[in-house]
Amino acid sequence: MNNENRENREIILAGFGGQGILFAGKMLAYFGLLGGREVSWLPSYGPEMRGGTANCSVCISDKPIGSPLVTEPNILIVMNNPSYDKFINAVAPDGLAIVDSSLVGARSDRKDINCVYVPATQMADENGLRGMANIILVGMLIKETGIASAEIIRKALEKIIPAAKKHLVESNMKAIELGMNS
Amino acid sequence: MERNLMKGNEALAEAAIRAGCKCFFGYPITPQTEISAYMAKRMPKVGGVFLQAESEIAAINMVYGCASSGIRCMTSSSSPGISLKSEGVSYIAGSDLPCVIINVMRGGPGLGGIQPSQSDYWQATRALGHGDFQVLVYAPSSVQEMADYVTKAFDMADKFRMPALILADGLLGQMMEPVTFADGEIKMSDASGKPWATCGHGNKRPHNIINSLYLQAEELEQHNIERFKRYELVKAECPEAESYLTDDADIVVAAYGSTARLARSAVDTARSRGIKAGLVRPITLWPFPDKQIKAACANAKRVLVTEMSMGQMVDDIKLAIECRLPVSFFGRTGGVIPKPSEILAQIVTLDEELKGE
Amino acid sequence: MPDFTKPHALTDVPFHYCPGCTHGIVHRLVAEVIDEMEIEGDTIGICPVGCSVMAYDYFNCDMIEAAHGRAPAVATGVKRANPDKFVFTYQGDGDLAAIGTAETIHAATRGENITVIFINNTTYGMTGGQMAPTTLPGQVTQTTPYGRNTNVEGFPVKVCEILSQISGVALAERVTVTDPANIRKAKAAIRKGFEFQKNKQGFSLIEVLSTCPTNWGKSPVESLEWLKENMIPYYPLGVYKEGAVR
């Protein structure tokens, strides 16, 4: 896919601290930024980020963004049970939920949203990409929505991965491709 | 100019450095700590000073000392910490010194909470310390404005020799948005253009004194009168507000800071449903932009104030429109962020009221 | 021939201090050191809240009036912005060892290159003689009318002893100004403090045991005697810490 799809995105990413929720959100925000769009990224903050649940809101739009806090996401990426329980019913009708099925046992019976189950944590482990389940889920998001072109994906990775950890660009690319091809 | 994705707190810190802020004195408190962390990383690389003080009180007094010597300097905190700083702010104002103070507001009173709030409006505009004084208060509404208004705050603080406060909140501090900075070299401020500064007289002039003590009542009164004359100049030059779709609006929503963003979304949705709604956003909270508010409400029939507080701005809005329109209020407090849909519901109710008239 | 002209670092404004108060002597010593080191043009002084609140009228260098207890923080702000200037604070015991304890201790722990002149006269002079953190056990003040009861009001703060434990301190020395020999020692200590500062070697504090005849209810001479008999045994004179920390 070469041209990114320019729909308005209101995204929630949620899981445990340490799963790279905020990083994945940042990546999505950069997709928007590098696509010349308006973006916002808002983390949950405070004691809950220490070992507890972590989530962040990402908005991508062609218009100025009003509320950076997403309460009815049209895209949800979820990586643990508490977050699944908290957010699955908040997803807007016709929205998309991408669930790490290695970690979330439940299956939604909502018929008005598109639920995609990806055993991302297991896939990461099997492919020598431990800790990159979040990025595999981003890959799935790209596949489902066309949110970013190949060119923007690479640019975004180069931008958010510090120069000292440059070697991680390729493994992140690999994780994204894994998600896109699953 | 390159668009950078930055947190509001970080964009503000970077802009302060670019404005020549040479010294930053901080103390950790959520949700503003990124400012300190950014300064700690960046200041040593640009020839500036970052110092973590032992308390909010010490930090504002370090600012007092630094500002006395004519150097651009800043401190930042969040609500409970700002209360601690109020002693120092009063001394700074009483000594007619320029400086910039950041309040990234969280819920209160007391230890309150750490989620975004706007419940320090009264403190900022009425009582940031004891005595007869005001501080300039800017209320940015986006990450870009966090950067832009800290620059302006330094300029105006210097121009009018008074403290300037950036009144932000946890939402603006924590969120990332694209931000651009003007190109140009970073040049740290010095005492040039500040003949009053206590930076050592170098045996070239009589000694300077920075002081707010006047034991003769008439003398103190005279200083206060002169300061308030200066405030008249500030009132003439500084008030700023943004109006959005207010020309033909029946219902004008008044909101500042991050709440104004939420209100704008609600106004857009209301318009898409054929409701004539508009938004007026004070950018300076002191001096309050009375004229701009009045003009924005010229054709309105109802005014809705919305804030993340129990309604601290309502009286100022009523005064600005000379109490000529019914003013209602909708707010969330304690760290709860209102939803645009909740603000929309208020607009819809007012619209129905108007239709019933 | 001894020189009895007024030091240049003092203005012509007459001191407002009570007869017999030793503030005047200490002001002069500081001013003489500034003159001898030829640093008046590069010096910024910070006055406290207390009797020496108006010291800004007396010193000829640039001066800043600080809030109660905050002088070391204010001095830090000046010094960090102007590391090559000389910065001193002049503080009383209530200012330095009660309301400003945190500022004192942390300026010391940072090893701020400033010099603190600390006047210990065991009382809050300006407000009319209330108990200070340094008031001696049994000492009568306005707020300890039956004498300081250590079971109720606790014990005096020994500033030099505390500072001697702090790594950032280059000089902690206790002196007094009861007689010419001690006045000479006091001046030497103040000079030492400014020299440490000049060489950027850390925090220096000179504690000067002083009198407050008015609030002690004694004549100037009686006050000096009372200081020698009561204060010096409790607050022994001497160097508590000396040596560059940088």
Description of the molecule:
The complex is a heterotrimer of chains A (182), B (357) and C (246). Chain A has 182 residues and is α/β, with parallel strands linked by helices. In chain A, 36% of the residues lie in helices and 20% in strands. In chain A, helix 2 links the parallel strand 4 (75-78) and strand 5. The model of chain A has no long low-confidence stretch (mean pLDDT 92). Chain B is α/β, with parallel strands linked by helices and 357 residues long. Chain B has helices spanning 8-18, 33-42, 56-68, 79-94, 121-126, 143-160, 170-174, 217-237, 257-272, 290-296, 314-320, 340-356; strands spanning 4-7, 23-26, 49-52, 73-77, 99-105, 136-138, 163-169, 176-179, 209-210, 241-244, 251-254, 277-282, 284-286, 302-307, 327-331. In chain B, the strands form three sheets. Chain B has a seven-stranded mixed sheet, sandwiched between helices. In chain B, strands 10-12-11-14-15 form a five-stranded mixed sheet, with helices on both faces. In chain B, helix 9 links the parallel strand 11 (251-254) and strand 12. Chain C contains nine helices and nine strands. In chain C, helix 1 crosses helix 7 (180-198) and helix 3 (93-99) crosses helix 4 (101-109). In chain C, 56% of the residues are buried. Strand 9 of chain B pairs parallel with strand 2 of chain C, so a sheet runs across the interface.
Our measurement of the CA-to-CA distance between the termini of chain C, rounded to an integer number of angstroms, reads 38 Å
Tell me the overall shape of chain C: globular
Largest interface: B-C, 40 and 36 residues
Q: What would you give as the CATH superfamily of the largest domain in chain B?
A: Thiamin diphosphate (ThDP)-binding fold, Pyr/PP domains
In CATH, the topology of the largest domain in chain B is named: Rossmann fold
Spatial ordering of strands, largest sheet of chain C:
2-1-3-4-8-7-9
User: Please, what is the average pLDDT of chain C?
Assistant: 97
Our estimate of the beta-strand percent of chain C is 15-25%
Largest sheet geometry of chain B: 7 strands, mixed
Secondary structure: helix percent of chain C: 25-40%
H/E topology pattern of chain B? EHEHEHEHEHEHEHEEHEEHEEHEHEH
Task: Give me the oligomer status.
Answer: heterotrimer
Q: Report strand order across the widest sheet of chain B.
A: 3-2-4-5-7-6-13
Residues in helices of chain B, as a percent range? 40-55%
